[in-house]
Amino acid sequence: MERYVIQGGIALNGNLDVQGAKNSALPIMAACLLGNGASILDNVPALSDVAVMAQIMETIGAKVAWTGENQLRVDCTQLDNWAIPDYLMRRMRSSFIVVGPLLGRLGRVRVTYPGGCAIGTRAIDLHLQGLKKLGAKITTGPSGQIEFRASQLRGTFVDLDIPSVGATENILMAAVLAQGTTVINNPAREPEIVDLQSFLNKMGARVEGAGGDQIIIQGVDKLEPACHEIIPDRIVAGTLLVAAAVTGGRVTLHKVVPAHMSVVVAKLAEMGATIDVGKDYITLYAPEQLKSVEKIITAPYPGFPTDMQPQFMAALASAQGVGILTEKIFDGRFKHIDELRRMGANISVDGRTAIIRGVEKLRGASVEATDLRAGAALAIAALSAEGVTTLSGVQHIDRGYVNLEGQLAALGAKIYREREA
Ligand code: UD1
């Protein structure tokens, strides 16, 4: 196990290119399973979750290899297995999104319940309902196996109660090879869904509407491999902007899509940061001290992202005034609060709402990342704090940030990684 040692109180300054989006790379890797041949993906972040997805795909017969900096070759010419072992399914939530493409390509797949960050209930009912409507027969085994079979999926109308990202992706990837037209009503509208649509269409699929209220898929007989560049990671970019904001720094992020980040940028501006937005860059000039905001409520895109909630809580912890933050997406995503309290934060919780009374300065402490974004939040808190913080559980951060310590150090932070005793 490894931990970060972070010396707080140093302003971040400089320029940085933002990595490719994990939440786009994972479903697009899974989509490669639909094409008979080798797809080439660029701007893929070298993360542990990407390695797990590669392992999952390799157990099915795919060949996945790095062929350049951030370039992945995913060869799905020969798929010779349809069962994914439980230990891989448990490694992350996204393991489940191979179900849709494998059902389309092989007509059969066996998985178990997926794992992932411990941030509350993470049901799969919408995935199952949608795939069932497309004609999949679903059976469950004695040790938690879920088996899907369909000799031919058929286009249908799927109405999602909640615009679930994963369910939208799974249903979309199953529907591209179904017979006839599928409509997904109330789909997730995240930029990563638009990226997936664009990749699938390069493979020969006929999908339209991603990013809007309905996705319409005309099924085709077969798909070809394709080349694609993954979009920038808006959550990593947001995390770096918050880190610059809490340290009183000035940072320019390149290779971003500012339109994907408008809510986050607006909140940082409301907190007193000056922000200059260009076509593919964002510069943040931090104020002397951030001001609290009283209304951050997480919501599906284009609302405030739940994946930025912990990082903003860390920023509010030492902002001037009282901040109010409500988590509407996940019911257990407040685990970072106890850790922030160890650093001197004054936070009370009422149901899904946290009330954060800004303190003058957080202080360095020994804290633990309980999940990916909680880890990012604690790194931000540590950068703003007086003194030294040791942050354990770095393996969670490695799931979503490529060499976070290197990125922060490039901006002047004093941070290093060490083995835990
Ligand atoms: C994706 C993102 C994750 C982000 C989340 C919400 C990836 C790899 N992960 O996760 O980083 O935090 O979107 O923006 O893209 N739900 C159900 N039934 C289902 C599916 C979901 O009730 O069948 C509920 C969940 O419990 C949750 C909400 O819907 O409360 C949103 O979940 P969902 O959008 O599916 O998140 P993920 O796809 O798991």
Please outline the helices and strands:
Layout: E1 2-7, E2 13-17, H1 22-31, E3 38-42, H2 48-60, E4 63-68, E5 71-75, H3 86-89, H4 99-106, E6 108-112, H5 125-133, E7 137-140, E8 145-149, E9 157-159, H6 165-175, E10 181-185, H7 191-202, E11 206-208, E12 214-218, E13 227-229, H8 234-246, E14 250-254, H9 262-270, E15 274-277, E16 281-285, E17 296-297, H10 309-316, E18 322-326, H11 336-342, E19 346-350, E20 353-357, E21 366-368, H12 372-384, E22 388-392, H13 394-397, H14 404-410, E23 414-419
Parallel strand pairs: 2-14, 3-13, 9-10, 17-18, 21-22
Antiparallel strand pairs: 1-22, 1-23, 3-5, 4-5, 6-8, 7-8, 10-12, 11-12, 14-16, 15-16, 18-20, 19-20
Helix pairs in contact: 1-2, 1-7, 4-6, 5-6, 6-7, 8-12, 10-12
Bound molecules: uridine-diphosphate-N-acetylglucosamine.
Structure description:
- This protein is α+β, with helices and mostly antiparallel strands and 421 residues long.
- The chain is built from 14 helices and 23 strands.
- The strands form 6 sheets. Strands 21-22-1-23 form a 4-stranded mixed beta sheet, covered by helices on one side. A 4-stranded mixed beta sheet has the order 2-14-16-15, covered by helices on one side.
- Helix 6 packs parallel to helix 7 (191-202) and helix 8 (234-246) runs parallel beside helix 12 (372-384).
- Bound molecules: uridine-diphosphate-N-acetylglucosamine.
- Uridine-diphosphate-N-acetylglucosamine (UD1) is lined by residues 23, 26, 93-94, 121-127, 162, 164-167, 188, 192, 306-307, 329-330.
